[in-house]
């Protein structure tokens, strides 16, 4: 039998918007629940998949946080990351910058050490085992306090050799970027790269604020920039990368249907777009599936798809490995879309 993962487009690509907790497939969730003696309130994997009908970001986040209960040991985080890396590699992902949500684990009594050491067991050998280079980006939960974010940055200090940057995720509306000015300043002083979710459900002003107040280098999602022509002009002029997630937008009803997604218009406007999977276990596809979807439904041709793949490496935090970036970019240029 051909798995759907074998037929997705294998153009070499970097994935820049991927929450590792959002790669928890129902089968692995039940296996980890059994291993850890955790009771899940679903009869089986089919019943769990039935719950994947989201009205909005919050209804997804409720399930996302609930299922994290099965992640308890270093080995759990290692298995989670290994499973993701194998699937991503099969879909042409050559480099990934992985988000993780330490506050969601620390709140359950699972420490920063368990999370980072566990993820690192898989990430540290990923180039040998999966042929995928990796970076780790620690996200702050924007619906928690600024003080909690500062405490989280403090808890990460022993692991800064493994953490490339900081991000901002969870419930967006009502939690503007400026709330996190202090922790982003502290992160910058520690030499960390900065990104933030903005303009997924929140208004275009949050994108501007993330750039001006937090000093971010990429915007995660950024979809709602299209409502503000002056902002689009700025993002084009400053070549700010946007990490778009088309299948996520459909599942969370940020767009009505994929056919109505603004990605083609955003590319036409000159925005530096990338295509990513966000939470692939929940949103119906990994990076290659998202590329397939924008090719099939939005009708993007080979040169647009090549541009998306090229942008993903140009926007990657690979400044300490420019030779590797150059190799990835030459693979993109040489790729034959058939
Ligand atoms: N948006 C905001 N927070 C998140 C997401 C998302 O898509 N996935 C996991 N945390
Ligand atoms: Zn996200």
TrEMBL record:
The record marks 221 as: Important for catalytic activity. This is Adenine deaminase. It catalyses: adenine + H2O + H(+) = hypoxanthine + NH4(+). GO terms for molecular function: adenine deaminase activity; zinc ion binding. Residues 12-324 form the Adenosine deaminase domain. It comes from Streptomyces griseoflavus Tu4000. Pfam families: A_deaminase (PF00962). InterPro entries: A_deaminase_dom, ADE, Ado/ade_deaminase, Metal_Hydrolase. Keywords: Hydrolase, Metal-binding, Nucleotide metabolism, Zinc.
């Amino acid at each position: 039998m051909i798995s759907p993962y074998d037929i997705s487009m294998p153009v070499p690509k970097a994935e820049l918007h991927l929450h590792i907790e959002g790669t928890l497939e129902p089968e692995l969730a039940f296996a980890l629940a059994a291993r850890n003696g955790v009771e899940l309130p679903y009869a089986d994997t089919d019943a769990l998949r039935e719950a994947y009908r989201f009205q909005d970001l919050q209804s997804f986040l409720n399930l996302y946080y609930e299922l994290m209960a099965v992640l308890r040991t270093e080995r759990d985080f290692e298995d989670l990351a290994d499973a993701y890396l194998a699937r991503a590699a099969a879909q042409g992902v050559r480099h990934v910058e992985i988000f993780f949500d330490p506050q969601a684990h620390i709140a359950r009594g699972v420490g920063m050490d368990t999370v980072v050491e566990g993820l690192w067991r898989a990430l540290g050998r990923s180039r040998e085992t999966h042929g995928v280079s990796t970076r780790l980006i620690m996200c702050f939960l924007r619906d928690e306090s600024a003080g909690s974010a500062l405490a989280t940055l403090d808890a990460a200090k022993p692991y800064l050799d493994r953490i490339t940057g900081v991000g901002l995720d969870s419930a967006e509306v009502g939690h503007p970027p400026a709330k996190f000015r202090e922790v982003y300043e502290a992160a910058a002083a520690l030499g960390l790269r900065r990104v933030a979710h903005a303009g997924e459900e929140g208004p275009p002003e949050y994108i501007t604020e993330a750039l001006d107040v937090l000093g971010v280098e990429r915007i995660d999602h950024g979809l709602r920039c299209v409502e503000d022509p002056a902002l689009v002009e700025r993002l084009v002029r400053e070549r700010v990368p946007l990490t778009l997630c088309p299948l996520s937008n459909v599942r969370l009803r940020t767009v009505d249907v994929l056919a109505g997604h603004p990605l083609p218009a955003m590319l036409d406007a000159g925005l530096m777009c990338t295509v990513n999977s966000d939470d692939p276990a929940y949103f119906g596809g990994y990076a290659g599936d998202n590329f397939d979807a924008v090719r099939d439904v939005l009708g993007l041709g080979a040169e647009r798809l090549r541009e998306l793949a090229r942008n993903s490496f140009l926007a990657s935090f690979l400044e300490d490995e420019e030779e590797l970036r150059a190799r990835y970019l030459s693979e993109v240029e040489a790729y034959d879309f058939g």
